[in-house]
């Protein structure tokens, strides 16, 4: 039983991590494409349209990857987590079915038109199809976050004698206090990823002294969008989410902040340190006193319960992974604000395009928003452990009762092999697109 | 309310097989009949422009099944674990075949992805048919051995095959000789459907030849259909009861038969769309007849210990189902609008449209 859960969790973690590389770019990039396309409609400067079309190619490859790695996600609820699906399907099935109905149909109906139909439709309709694709992809994020929010903080349900969760109040799925902060945080994170990607491409063109006009435009737009989204990620959305965790999942809050022992008065904020699970303390700790209490409750001496206040069964089962994920996310987020702030400052002073070290930094920064996004999701998912539905349904109670670990390992290996190939193809194609660069319109 | 959602999901499934069916079929035809690069490209394009929006119907069917019949969803998805995951892998290969063939302009690259597209379309058609065969044949619910269930009564697990390959054994596997027959029927049906799609949407040089192919495949299909009915009677003597009790259900087999007859006249049909309509009738009639014959069961039990999974014992409670109707109606109206727009902008032959360059 024990390793049955292990492989099921590993397969879900692996497939969702790989999947999320793609939608986090497409959601943000669709916004940026709509922005360029809109700018072109207003001032008719061709280069905005060229950029929009260039980004569309990158978008298309990412979108395909997102679709084909996304279908397995929906299937896996049933294949690997059958008991969970059986018990909660009448609730989370609602939001997942709505995602198909309202987002995927919208997105897929207009994507082909958006990619292939510019000549067919004229500029205004082309902008509109782009906008509808953007709406579809953000809607998809909304429904997935609504599903996840219910698992983090279940609302509007009733539990029957046979253990099944039954929907009692449909609208509460969307007024869930967990949903809006998580959704906004997730969407700004996705805008940050795509801003960093276009800034990085821009920096690359400038450093190579190629496609200079386009490069400058990409870099300029990237750093401005990047700074705004990075700031919004920390405040207010990151702050809201942290407060939600402190309120609804206090045990996870203690674990992610690395508070082993409850302090008498205000709690310190840990900047660096390694969790030592044997001695139940942080090694090599650097911390600032009372800050955590202030950030969370705006009171310097408010007590925050540490892990010593919770039973072992209530605490997340992998505390170091949760702690590191959280600190990596927050640390990177802080660095993002610093780098992008600097870049915007030099942009304002009209020096940005000449400061080589900064351009190199921006170019190589590109993997890090992906890492921050994924560790952010790890915080949410590891923090919810040992539950699938927080406080109500344990992860161990959700697996498929008839699927053996041998079969799960077989399919996990298959997914690893196929995704390796997919990842390789993806890099080749995106690399090729970036290498070719934006092309001026030929009439 | 259960019946309502059952019908909705059945319709969504039929639409999925009609739509994605033609691009599976285009893949099968591509594999065997496309010889020149020009034909290969245009046939791949006739699938490549549409597969993504077609496959959303599968995702929608999955989502609705999850919401309306969660017990069925979890039982079937975990019970058919291996074939479903293999289907996922094939879907991935097919999609990358279609999306990546145009990305580099040299023949070897294109050949690789053409084969990926063709072979995975072929296998998917076969596998979806085998899945349908499993549904009508039923499974060993509860994993009964010697009269005792080893799982909860609504769970099961099927190996890919059992040593006897027989549908009559106590616990048959996914692949046995009966499900293979249904798989072949599906394969031939979708090949016909794909050929009709190619004729309808492209000016490929093999359009005329494909009409002969359709005619020949239709003879094979007729023979397979008769054979499968005889076999099915042997496996499940009650398979016609629903049609005898409720004669108006006969409309579904009649739809199937009229499609079959229509296709014999493929060379004389006035417009290309008529052939496509005939193969659509085949798919509609085939799926609806199969579902009608086992109704109200959705997955029959092959043992006497555990009862079949029906639309009643696997459905979600009333409240959720009725709320979902409200948003479902809005969703379907929107969807209808999208389809009209798409049809207006992408109707007609697609030879001249941009694709991946």
Secondary structure layout:
The complex is a heterodimer of chains A (443) and B (357).
Chain A: H1 2-20, H2 23-43, H3 46-79, H4 82-116, H5 118-121, H6 123-152, E1 157-159, E2 165-167, H7 172-175, H8 179-208, H9 212-248, H10 250-257, E3 269-276, E4 281-288, H11 291-297, H12 319-348, H13 356-364, H14 367-384, E5 387-389, E6 393-394, H15 405-436
Antiparallel strand pairs in A: 1-2, 3-4, 5-6
Chain B: H1 2-33, H2 37-48, H3 51-68, H4 70-79, H5 81-100, H6 107-137, H7 177-201, H8 207-235, H9 241-245, H10 251-264, H11 272-294, E1 297-299, E2 309-310, H12 318-346
Antiparallel strand pairs in B: 1-2
Helix pairs in contact in B: 1-2, 1-3, 1-6, 1-7, 1-11, 3-4, 5-6, 6-7, 7-8, 7-11, 10-11
Would you mind describing this structure in some detail?
The complex is a heterodimer of chains A (443) and B (357). By secondary structure, chain A is mainly α. Chain A has a domain at 227-403. In chain A, 72% of the residues lie in helices and 6% in strands. Chain A has helices spanning 2-20, 23-43, 46-79, 82-116, 118-121, 123-152, 172-175, 179-208, 212-248, 250-257, 291-297, 319-348, 356-364, 367-384, 405-436; strands at residues 157-159, 165-167, 269-276, 281-288, 387-389, 393-394. The longest helix of chain A is centred in the middle third of the chain and has 37 residues, at 212-248. Chain A is globular, with a radius of gyration of 23 Å. The model of chain A has no long low-confidence stretch (mean pLDDT 93). A two-stranded antiparallel ribbon of chain B has the order 1-2. The longest helix of chain B has 32 residues, at 2-33. Chain B is globular, with a radius of gyration of 21 Å. The chains are: A mainly alpha (443), B mainly alpha (357). The interface between A and B is large, with 65 and 66 residues.
């Amino acid at each position: 039983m024990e390793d049955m859960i292990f492989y099921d969790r590993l397969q879900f973690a692996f497939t969702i991590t790989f999947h999320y590389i793609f939608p986090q770019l497409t959601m943000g990039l669709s916004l940026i494409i709509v922005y360029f396309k809109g700018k072109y409609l207003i001032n008719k400067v061709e280069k905005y349209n060229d950029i929009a079309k260039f980004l569309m190619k990158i978008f298309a490859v990412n979108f395909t990857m997102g679709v084909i790695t996304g279908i397995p996600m929906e299937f896996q609820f049933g294949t690997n987590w059958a008991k969970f699906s059986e018990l909660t399907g009448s609730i989370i099935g609602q939001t997942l079915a709505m995602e198909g109905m309202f987002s995927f149909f919208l997105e897929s109906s207009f994507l082909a038109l958006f990619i292939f139909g510019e000549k067919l439709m004229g500029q205004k309709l082309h902008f509109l199809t782009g906008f509808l694709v953007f709406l579809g992809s953000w809607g998809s994020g909304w429904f997935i976050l609504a599903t996840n929010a219910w698992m983090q903080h279940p609302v509007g349900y009733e539990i029957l004698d046979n253990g099944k969760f039954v929907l009692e109040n449909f609208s509460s799925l969307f007024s869930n206090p967990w949903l809006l902060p998580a959704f906004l945080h997730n969407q700004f994170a996705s805008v940050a990823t795509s801003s960093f990607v276009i800034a990085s491409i821009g920096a690359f063109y400038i450093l190579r002294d190629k496609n200079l006009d386009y490069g400058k435009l990409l870099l300029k737009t990237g750093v401005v969008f990047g700074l705004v989204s990075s700031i919004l990620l920390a405040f207010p959305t990151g702050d809201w989410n942290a407060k939600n965790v402190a309120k609804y999942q206090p045990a996870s809050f203690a674990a992610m902040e690395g508070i082993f022992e409850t302090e008498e008065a205000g709690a310190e904020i840990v900047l660096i340190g390694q969790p030592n699970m044997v001695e139940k303390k942080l090694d090599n700790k650097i911390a600032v006193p009372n800050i955590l209490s202030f950030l969370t409750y705006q009171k310097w001496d408010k007590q925050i319960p540490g892990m010593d206040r919770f039973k072992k069964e209530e605490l997340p089962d992998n505390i170091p992974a949760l702690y590191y994920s959280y600190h990596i996310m927050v640390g990177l987020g802080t660095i993002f604000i610093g780098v992008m702030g600097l870049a915007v400052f030099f942009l304002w002073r009209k020096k940005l395009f000449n400061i080589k070290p900064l351009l190199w930094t921006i170019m190589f920064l590109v993997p890090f928003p992906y890492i921050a996004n994924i560790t952010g999701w790890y915080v949410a998912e590891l923090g919810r452990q040992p539950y699938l539905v927080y406080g109500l349904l344990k992860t161990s109670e959700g697996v498929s009762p008839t699927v053996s670990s041998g079969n799960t390992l077989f399919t996990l290996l298959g997914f690893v092999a196929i995704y390796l190939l997919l990842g390789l193809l993806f890099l080749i194609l995106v690399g090729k697109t970036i290498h070719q660069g934006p092309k001026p319109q030929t009439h | 309310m259960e019946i309502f959602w059952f019908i909705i999901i059945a319709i969504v499934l039929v639409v999925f097989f009609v739509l994605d069916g033609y691009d599976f079929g285009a893949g099968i035809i591509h594999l065997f009949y496309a010889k020149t690069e020009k034909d290969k490209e245009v046939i791949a394009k006739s699938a490549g422009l549409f597969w993504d929006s077609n496959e959303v119907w599968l995702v929608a069917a999955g989502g609705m099944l999850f919401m309306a019949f969660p017990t069925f969803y979890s039982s079937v998805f975990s019970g058919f674990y291996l074939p479903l995951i293999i289907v996922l892998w094939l879907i991935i290969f097919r999609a990358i075949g279609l999306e990546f063939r145009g990305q580099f302009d040299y023949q070897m690259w294109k050949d690789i992805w053409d084969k990926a597209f063709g072979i995975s379309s072929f296998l998917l058609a076969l596998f979806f048919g085998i899945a349908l065969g499993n549904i009508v044949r039923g499974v060993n619910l509860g994993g009964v051995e010697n009269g005792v269930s080893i799982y909860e009564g609504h769970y099961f697990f099927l190996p890919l095959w059992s040593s006897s390959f027989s549908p009559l054994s106590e616990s048959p596997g996914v692949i046995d000789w009966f499900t293979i027959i249904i798989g072949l029927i599906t394969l031939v049906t979708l090949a016909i459907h794909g050929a009709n799609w190619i004729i309808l949407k492209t000016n490929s040089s093999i359009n005329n030849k494909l009409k002969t192919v359709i005619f020949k495949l239709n003879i094979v299909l007729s023979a397979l259909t008769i054979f499968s009915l005889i076999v099915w009677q042997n496996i499940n003597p009650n398979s016609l009861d629903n049609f005898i009790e409720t004669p108006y259900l006969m409309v579904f087999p009649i739809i199937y038969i009229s499609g079959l007859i229509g296709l014999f006249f493929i060379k004389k049909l006035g417009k290309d769309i008529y052939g496509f309509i005939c193969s659509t009738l085949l798919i509609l009639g085939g799926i609806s007849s199969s579902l009608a014959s086992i109704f109200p069961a959705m997955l029959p039990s092959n043992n006497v210990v555990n009862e079949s999974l029906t639309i009643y014992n696997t459905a979600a409670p009333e409240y959720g189902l009725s709320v979902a109707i409200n948003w479902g109606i809005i969703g379907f109206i929107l969807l209808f609008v999208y389809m009209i727009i798409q049809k207006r902008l992408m109707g007609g032959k697609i030879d001249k449209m941009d694709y991946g360059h």
